[in-house]
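Appendix B, Record 12. Input sequence as logged:
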Amino acid sequence: MSYRPVPRRSVLANAIYGLLNPIPFGFFVAALIFDVVYSRSGEILWMKAAAWLIAIGLVFAIIPRVVNLVQVWITSRRSTVAAERLDFWLNLLAIIVAVINAFVHSRDAYAVMPAGVWLSALTVLLLAISHIVIAVQPTAPGSLVHE
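Logged structural output:
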């Protein structure tokens, strides 16, 4: 019987990931709320604020995705579980949808509706599913999951 040690993931990378990963979700949820308010009121302030929230959420989504990319696909490929890979793909798809949503929000006034609401809702849904997938996975030593 041979023993092969499981490569440990960086504590610093786990800390950065744990600190920054929830931030984009909050920005995208706020953007969804602002989009819904804008669709009901027609007040341009809400659409502009949603556009800014989406842009800021995308900025904050970059670092956790890079950490996730390195840890899941490069440094510890053999020790990752399927849930971590699914989480990566769901987050990547959510970021792609959010980028499209940012372009939709660059339109003028009410041309943002209804696509802006649907894209915001899809972004939030994908991120929520990825958080659920990670939350229900069995924890592995050195994984990105925080207890």
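Residues 11-135 form one domain.
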